[in-house]
Amino acid sequence: MSTRRFSDDIPDPVEPDAAEGGAGTRLPSVRRSEPTSASTPARTQSPANTRTGSAHLPRTLTQVLNEANERLVQGDLVDYVPLPTGFDPLDGFIGGGLRKTELVLLGGAQGIGKTIATLQIARNIALRPDQYVFYLSYEHTETHLMHRLLCLESVSPPEIDLSRGVKLRDLYQIIVTSRAKEFMGRDGGAGSLQAILREDPRTAPSLTRIHRYADRMILVKASPAVTTLRAIKEMTARLCDATGGNVVLFIDYLQKIAVHPERPRDENDKVTIIVEGLKDIAMTLDIPVWSIVAADREGLKSKRIHLFHLRGSSALDYESDIAIIMNNKYQILSKDHVAFNPYTAKQFRDWVVFTIEKNRAGRAMYDMEFQLHGQHFAFDPRGQKVQQQLIDDKIIET
After folding, report:
1. What is the pLDDT of residue 272?
2. If you placed Cys at 371, which of 260, 276, 310, 380 could pair as Cys (CB 3.0 to 4.6 Å)?
3. Residue 295 gets which letter from DSSP?
4. What pLDDT score does 344 carry?
5. How far apart are alpha carbons 246 and 132 in whole angstroms?
6. Please, are residues 291 and 348 in contact by the beta-carbon 8 Å criterion?
């Protein structure tokens, strides 16, 4: 498949109001893969752009029907085919994966693995030759996210080969040791980072796997001071224009998005503005939006976090299409259950329960579990239905 750079098609946008106190976030260059056959679902002339221009204008049902008919005749099925997250059985319960115009929220306590799951899902989507991922992180630098992906790729989900797994400290040691050898004039010291990773047998497979989607994953270290909703929408719109609308937006995390020039009265008001803005981005640009949401203080104190424990207003519930809450399985097992055994229960410390607490188009309040390999920043995406009784007097059907 031939590729061409289209960085010239996407000006580097600087966030608005950057001159008032912060450095602007610049959108990195990306590379577009050209479709090689008519069966490739990538758009050459984006209908999303057409709908974006008329998103707030009245149209007759006949116009809507004709537009949908034209897209279908041209072989554009993206409105009907979801993007799988790669997590099973999660995909099955949210209609096959992520859909355009939908806002998905992922909540849970600190350290439960929200970023790990989100980055892994972003990676799974970017593996598709026709799909691009725009990942904004208010928590981590682009380099740190790259290091996490190198560790993830070392176990190669969904295979999860832990025997070949590389931990973050192993990665750092490989890089530092190789550079030290070069400085000391010893044989085997590689120069560049890619040369180091390519020449070491423990990291070479990870580098090879990352190259499969590196041109389709766009990372931004966002600033909680200046990366506003308006800036996010502008950058995402430019990517939609350049990729034919084949973009999924990921945000880590919602409460850190800057709002300007709005002046929210309190945090609830701020969260309302943000979540309504993200839903507007999803609908106006015709893309899926996935955002991590932090839990509030009461939620962190509770035995089991729910959707109403997420920090902010009830707009999180109203505006989201899908809301998934993560809890550590060991902590939410019902200790009163007759079959509960504290010794065998310890095996569940590395398992995380994903609960679909809202599902606008399907079944909600469904619990599934996935094993977390935190040292490699990866989940085993082959999950299963929770069989044990959980707290909240909720018995999972078997």
Report:
1. 94
2. 380
3. B
4. 66
5. 6
6. no
What pLDDT does residue 80 have? 76
In 3D space, the residue among 93, 250, 81, 85 whose CA is nearest the CA of residue 158 turns out to be 85
pLDDT at 186: 57
Asked whether 391 and 345 are in contact (CB, 8 A), the reply is no
Q: Return the pLDDT at 388.
A: 86
Return the residue matching tokens 């503005």: 273
Q: Which residues pair with 290 in a beta bridge?
A: 104, 250
Phi, psi torsion values for 146, nearest 5 degrees = -60, -45
Q: What is the DSSP string of 105-174?
A: EEEE-TTSSHHHHHHHHHHHHHTSTT-EEEEEESSS-HHHHHHHHHHHHHHTTTT--GGG---HHHHHHH
For residue 289, the cross-strand partners are 103, 249
**Residue 276: per-residue pLDDT:** 95
Q: Cα–Cα distance between 313 and 270 in angstroms, integer? A: 9
Q: What b/e string do you get for 108-133 counting C-beta neighbours within 10 Å, with b at 16 or more?
A: bbeebbbbbbbbbbbbbbbebebbbb
Residue 365 buriedness (CB in 10 A; 0-12 / 13-18 / 19+):
exposed
Residue with tokens 């380099």: 143
Secondary structure class of 359 (helix, strand, coil): strand
Q: Are 216 and 125 in contact (CB under 8 A)?
A: no
* Segments of the chain with pLDDT less than 50: 1-24, 31-51, 338, 393-398
pLDDT at position 316 is 92
Does a cis peptide bond (omega within 30 degrees of 0) precede residue 158? yes
H helix or E strand, kind and range, residue 192: none
Distance in angstroms (rounded) separating the CA atoms of residues 181 and 39: 50
DSSP state of 261: S
Structure confidence at residue 303 (pLDDT): 86
pLDDT at 35: 40
> The whole model's pTM is what?
0.83
